Amino acid sequence: MPKLSIGISGHIDLIHGDFNFIKKRIKEKIEKITKGLLPSDVVLYTGMAKGADSLTAEVALDLGIRVVAVRSILNKDEPLPDGIEKKVLPNHFLENEAQLSYVVLGDFIVQNSDHLLVLWDGIYNGKKGGTSEVVLKALNSQRKFSLHQLVVPRKQNPYPLANLLKESLNFRNEKFQRIPFTVHFSWIELVLPLEKKESLVKKWLRISLHFLKSKIFLSFCLPIILVVLTISLGALGFSEISPWITSENAFYKAVNLLTLSESVIISPKNLPTSLQVARLLGLITTMSAFAIAFFLALGNEWKRVRLSIFRLIYKARYTLVIGSGEKSFDLIKDLSQAGKKIVWLVSTDSVLFAEEVDRMGVILIKGQSHSEDTLKKVHYQSANEIFLMDDDDTKNIRGALELDRLTPSGSLKQKWYVHIQSKSQRQLLTTHIRKEFWANIHVFDTNENTARRLQLYYPFDRFYQSPDTNTTHVVVFGFGKLAQEIVLSALRLGHFPYGKRLKVSVFCKNANEEKIQFESHYPALNPHASSQYHLNLLKENLWEDESLSFHELPNADSELLSNQNLLFTQILKEKHIVSLYVCLENGFESGAILSVLLPKLNFIKTQRNCNLQVFCFYNFPDKNEEKATEYRFNCLAPDIPVVCFGNLLDECSAVAIRDRALDALPKQIAYWYTKKYGDSSLNIEQAWLLTSEQEKESNRNAADHLWIKIRSIWHIIDWKFNPKTFELLPDVVITPENELPLCETEHRRWCAELLLKGFRPLQDAGLTMEEIEDLRELWYKPGGKDLLKAQKLHIDLLPFEDIEPSEQEKDLNQIRNIPKFLKAIINTE
Fold it and tell me: What is the model's pTM?
């Protein structure tokens, strides 16, 4: 009996030129998972198909590991290489049912492997018995085992996707468990099951307890049960002590127990047990009737009474959610499923989901979040967490400022989570909140977090897959708030070394009006909006004239699928890198347009060999529905990875809101900058605490772009690093010739960030050379820099070669400290 079993599943059409490297990566993985075991203690189960199965079998045989070919009745007689054993599955198939034999083989591999290796391109193509189906079975299995994906290109799809990366990161103790991105031939490891399914007994108990606590049971079912039991037991008892009375009289005497009259006159001596229990039940029934009557008489005031009781029982153990809308409801639903006690404060307008949250046991209070009386009425100071989640930023800000005013200095122990979409209003809030409270306040935007996670898990800068391509295309359908955030994120981060460029194309209704409005908010994106020399020079350096373009979204399917569509004529060309985000305001609209488009996209992709990934905004709060929809999309386009994103159950869950993983690297950059150019006595938490919201945003952008820099030099350093220290290996050197492009790229990224915030080059602010020189002198005087930055002017908004050497040195130091940043946020144990 082997001590360890390994299973293998993978593609048969791996690229022949990759075989040696794939075998090397397989050998490294097998040696790692079998460390400390003898080869005789290990068995490899394989279907012995061409490609992945055969390559893995070769490696296992070279390592002295026992290899077992799992066969069906249909292929049991096919010859095997020397040294390979055979296991024939007992299932019987007809000759035309060969596909089913692969399904059974996949089942066996999943059920009998301690470690399952999959050489997979990351696309769930819906093929029966295929590698993607094996992966799905593994993810849905309740067995405890490990799944290892080797991200491999194949002939059918040379641009693989790291589809399991998101589940493998496991951010704990301020560290990722691995580098948060992959390239070709990266391993991704998951320990399964990801989520333990609830047993039937636990599910039944949970449903039963939920029903027992429900209003319908307490106010209707329970009284009926008490009445029936009281009368039944009472009638039985009266019949025992007075055998001569009729059943009808016994019944009426038992009814009197509900009014307590018979309970008073009955002598307590020698009463049968049934009658004693009936008297007690009659008392309980009467008291419950008075309680229900009292509850009905109180009306809405009952909520205040219940809240007072709630506060006494769950002091500092309940959560206060403030704000109306679907985001608040999804958060409440998530908290309720986690067993949290919740108070929901909403505006006096009509409340959606009121009946549903009432069934969850949530105390719903109507009132204004910025009202002192309302906040005191909900005992805000007794909650351990407060979430301000209204769809209106203004209400969240006013609520946070009122909480700040009401909370005495030195007494804040709660955590406040404030949802604000506007970056300028976010800055306004942090400047008005007392500094001593900053450590307890987390300001966030679900749209921004969604865009950042998309770029982290599924980067649009896939030049490492298509090194001969100079442009990456970001295509967005729709232009709501989330779509705008994706566009802005691309424009902030889409700056690359070595002449690589970004193009963003937006397809939406009323495209010209949307373009005018968007450029009015971000005038730096209008190539014709300014006559200022330095600003125009900088814009040419950052964005080409056609970096951002708007196009009308077709109404009719025929127009959408037309060969004259710009998407097919100019964007989806041979070997082009294209990331398509379909994010209309409604998830069903996104799904509908994508269902029409996907078959043609799949045809174009295979014909032109373009590097295409598709993302669908699907915001309905049902994870099973989302998974099923994503699977159907991938079946429509089996050669294109299609990923659903933006589900509010993910983005508005308490875990996602509390999650600081996206800020781990920004904190390190802020800490490094503070140690290098500020107060070196501060620790990392103090440095982050004293960082302004505007600077935090800049650190987040720098952190998100760091992964782009690393990917851009992948082909140069071949990612050869010490896995403990993240220092480059001795035989790998990033030369000054390579450092300079990265420094220039970082400066261009920083300039783009400031221009999108409305900054202008200081050199354009003066009408004469003397005025410009005066401004330059003011910049270097104490307080002058802050004064000019408050006017949205900056002296370093120039091409990299024109800024001061000391400023160039800052960019260079950031590049050289990348290994230290990685070491600080990635667990290497």
Answer: 0.88
